[in-house]
Design a protein that fits this description.
213 residues; alpha/beta; Nitrilase/N-carbamoyl-D-aminoacid amidohydrolase; 3-stranded mixed sheet; globular; disordered C terminus
Length: 213
């Protein structure tokens, strides 16, 4: 069993210093309450969605610096895993950035996952700046529990990956909705054994854990 802290903060777009301060404050609370995982919203460091700021080299440099400061700050919460989101550089053909979920612990990056399903409808235009990540699972073991990292809409119902005992994700700040029936059925099937609470910041509701209720 692992303890998960859902850090439902409300980042401000472009406010790297303010967002970093919010993350560190919430992380300190999570550690004080004995959390094994502190899960933050998608792109929590820059705010969602940075838009034209992602075209600015100075902004990207400051983002990288803030991310490194966050990595170092995890040393102040020994043993706790910080699940955060930030744009990170990539090499190769295509866009030069990825929308990345990172899991940090004790000053190290333990898991890195690039968002695969990039929305390009309505107010969303993520393909403008980000390259989709590879269709692979990123799994981390925390206190003996296998944890699958994903970002936003990549739910268990959309992959053929071997089931894990716990699922963590990064969603939109302050956005709450109940999981679709398809995703809920997948969660119930995949989490048939007693699990740590699957953590979906964008799906947190008063009904609690969707796979255990």
């Amino acid at each position: 069993m692992i303890r998960i802290h859902v850090a439902q903060i409300n980042p401000t777009i472009g406010d790297l210093e303010g967002n970093l301060a919010r993350i560190l404050e919430e992380g300190a609370k999570a550690h004080a309450h004995g959390a094994d995982l502190a899960v933050f919203p998608e792109l929590c460091l820059t705010g969602y969605y940075p838009g034209d700021l992602l075209d600015e080299p100075v902004f990207l440099s400051r983002t990288a610096g803030a991310l490194d400061r966050l990595r170092q700050a995890t040393l102040q919460a020994p043993g706790m895993h910080w699940v955060v989101g930030a744009p990170t550089p990539r090499v190769g053909a295509g866009k030069r950035l990825e929308n990345t979920l990172l899991v940090m612990c004790d000053g190290e990056i333990r898991l890195r996952y690039a968002k695969q399903l990039l929305p390009t409808y309505g107010i969303f235009d993520e393909r403008r700046h980000f390259e989709p990540g590879p269709d692979v699972a990123r799994i981390l073991r925390v206190k003996g529990v296998r944890v699958w990292g994903f970002c936003c809409a990549k739910t268990p119902g959309t992959t053929r990956t071997k089931p894990t005992r716990s699922i963590l994700g990064s969603g939109w700040p302050r956005h709450r909705r109940i999981l679709s029936s398809e995703s809920t059925r997948a969660l119930r099937t995949w989490a048939s054994a007693p699990c740590a609470m699957p953590c979906f910041p964008k799906a947190a509701t008063a009904t609690g854990c969707p796979c255990c209720t």
